[in-house]
Amino acid sequence: MSTPRTAFRAGARAILPFLVGVVVFGSVAGSSARDLGLSALQSATLAGLLFAGAAELVTLDLLARGAPLLVVVATALIVNARLALYAAALSPHMTGLSGGQRLGLAAFVTDQPFVLTWRGFATPLPSAARAAYFLGAALPMWITWQAAHLAGFAYGARLPAQLSLDFALPLTFVAVLVPRLRERGPRTAALVAAGLYPVCAGLPLQLGLCAAAGAGVLVSALRGGEPRA
Question: Is the pTM of this model over 0.70?
């Protein structure tokens, strides 16, 4: 992966196993947008600008309930708070890029591309190659998300109502996490976060998950672990 081209290809190959979950989850989101009464253009705009499945489903649910726009925006920001942490973690490894290039890459930061890219930081690479690897993982995921969202909007009404497909995306997170539990840092972070979440679940504004995850990363860092994901 010493050149941007080979790094981009490596990132694209690495993300392939996770695209199945993206297809399913994107289809659910597109179908939900149609059920809410959005037009095809509104649905496509939402998918393109809000590249985050959980935040989109929460947004659609709040809109369906008639929530004020400020509440909808604030809730989406809270759900996506982890993405700011991902971007902050990636930024020091992209030192050779301009501010505009970093901003462009930040629009594609999601869970799986972040984890795959961070895992690759164990190998010394030029910042351009690291950026290309991240884009190679993130761009196919973005394209797949848009296509699945469109398909869900167009054909979601034909799926049986009892066919629950929204379990697929969490399974992709499990596939990413489990191999990392062999390392001390991720294992410590996961155990602390899992132990604290029942205590933090009652926090207002749905901050329980963010608080538990942040505590897990902090404890892992203080112990000298490397919480890469």
Answer: no
